[in-house]
Fold:
Amino acid sequence: MTNRYNLNTLSLMQNPQAGGTCRPVRRLVARCLAVSAAVVSLAGARAATVYVTCDPAQNWNGYENVYTNGVSSTVWPAYYSTYLGVGTSFPNQATIDGSGNVTISPDIRMDELYPTDPLLWADTSGTSPAISDVVSDMYIDSSAVAAGGDTVVFSGSLTANTLAAPYSSTAVLFIKDYDSSYNYKGIASVPVSTLAPGQTFTVTYPGISATGDHVQWGLEWTGPPARVATVGSLGSATVSTNGANVTPPPSVVNVYIDPSWPWNGYENIYNQYGGYVTGNYFAPGNTAQVQGSISHSGVAEIAPDISESIGNPYDTTIWADASGTSPAIASVDSNFYVDETTVAGAGQTVVFSGTLVTNSLVEPYASSAVAFIKEYTSSFGFIGEVTVNLNTLTNGQSFSISTVVVNTGDHVQWGFEWQGPPVRTNLVAAAGYAILSSNSVVTTGPQILTITPATANVVAGGSQTFTANAVGTGLTYQWLKDGALLSNGAGVAGATTATLALTAMPPSAEGAYSLVATDSSNRKATNSAYAVVYNPAWLYFDPILAPFNGYINVWDSPALTSRPPSGTAGTTPPSNFGFGVSPTTLLRASMNNGVVTLQPNTYVFDGATNTMNPAYINPDGSAAAYLEQDYYVAADFLNGQTLTFAGFCPSNSLNSAYTAVAWIKDLTPSYSLEHRYDAPLVQGQPFSITVATTPGDHVQYGFALFGPANSSTNPITAGAAQATIYSPLSVTPSSPGVKLTFPTVVHRGYNLQYKTNLTDATWSSLVLTNGTGSPITVPDAGAAARRFYRFQIE
Structure:
């Protein structure tokens, strides 16, 4: 696999007698202070369209990157990068006035600060021309303006443009997408040079990568730094909000009984005296016990709550007695609803409408059932609620309720609520139900129902096809990768059809593939799928697209004190039983910033004192079970490949009763025979495993911790072992000096550093570069007789 990891790596050097570890490094990116933004949603659609402008009420930021490798090359990293703060004017020659007029001119800041720097100017006279390049930005940055999948539209008009070359051809209006950690996701732009004075512009970014992303919009311009004395002759450009010609955000947001939203369940339980007992949340897709459901066609059904009959059938605070059949003495307030913080902003009106199909609920549920809109603060402080009682509606009658949102970022909820005693499962049919459907005013724009597969696992050099199931009239299509438009060419076919075919995929092909479908009325829909590209010779793991699994194998033999052998004969003796563990935090295994941490598991032992088999605790209270806890990636598509899994163990404080290993497993199709090939995690040492796997088998790779089950209070369980996956660095002689080569991951930064002596106080940077998904070779012509190297990975 190739990307989306924060990696700690093994330090490597020209002299193989020395080593060490290094820490992650982050590249400089454009950041800003807190901003406020209005958030807009299209009616009834999961993906919204958000309209933004040159709004003077927003926080505007300045940024500049200075490159010293020639005026025609701006390959990151920059020689000089700085965030210029928040304001209405910046030293990179950018301003905004109270009417939303943004003016930019060639950057003079380098002349003001470093007028004689020979890396910036042709000589040190203070008047010579530039031999460097500056990329300047003025922009708004907001992580609240749009959610995952939303389309962002930046509109305005060009007031004037007198910029001289090369600035005239490089200035663009843009929308950029960065994730919450400022990893770049994509850009949409319109060149200022394509506009005439007075002409409107529209920049459209069709599909923000994820909720919480930093969305930036504004202007960027590139060219040599200007001298203060001559900048006036290089012109300027001004763009504005364009007044009434900008498409305004809708003042009304319509929501419906829409299956594309995540529908939640919640119950509040009250005892026979009306006192609050507890509340239970039911995640989307798990609302059956609260008796709320929604179909793919937008038909919702609610019925009296059966969760207490299933989960607490003998609880005498809920039921009249402990027989399991007695009537209820408690009451339940049930909710089936959507909760969103980005559906509408402050001052916008949210309208929830639908149609009652039928209502056969009996009392007291019939008179208590309502459709509602509720508003809570960002910390779930209650603000207000509007309702309509379903008992006031006749079959086939529509309802519509509305509320004005108080604060941008508030939780807006809409759905249904009903109250009454919990019902035994065998009696619930007699209590009736209510069925409701989407109101007939629901818009019928295009929909991309699915993209198959949702996540594709591909071996580097392989092929993959993504097929969309879209509905709509007169549809046209456009595929994007990580927000950038795709076109047909080498390795890409079907870029403007419903089926995208990718061939000879390099590691850099990993990423998000989104499709925008546009109907004959220019209404758009979007959906995304993902490709994870694996390099068998250099296995990585992706915690987002290829999450870790948890599994425990248990041996009940107290004589087993070390990990059972495996290999061509399989694991002997085989475990007595095994079970998956979810969430993996129960496994006492986790990954943070690319570092995997394993701690001795206490799940079996602590559980045995309650509901699990007490045979796994000896009479003296000690453990009677030996465990293998696995934290791994399932990768069956790699079967038949020769795999290499390599990394480094930065620390291991485990008690001697435990052994931590990295492993590759090759399991027979029936899982009856497991071949495990492992390498111990030894503090300060690398590990490397290479295995030729069998076609048709199940393939897994990851980490395991072997040792006795034990209590979480036993001090021997306090230790931990850690592991990282690193990029191997190779050094070859060159003339002059050496060449250093290392594999890279797309969207990651690499800082290659060196020391002449390990006792030197600091490391010097040789190169700072972004990964491409392919190996990068860096020459070091100045290498001394002995030089030590390491690199840090973002």
User: Anything to note?
Assistant: The chain is about 5% helix and 40% strand. The first strand starts at residue 10 and ends at 11. Residues 49-250 form a domain with the Jelly Rolls fold (CATH 2.60.120). The chain has a mean pLDDT of 82.
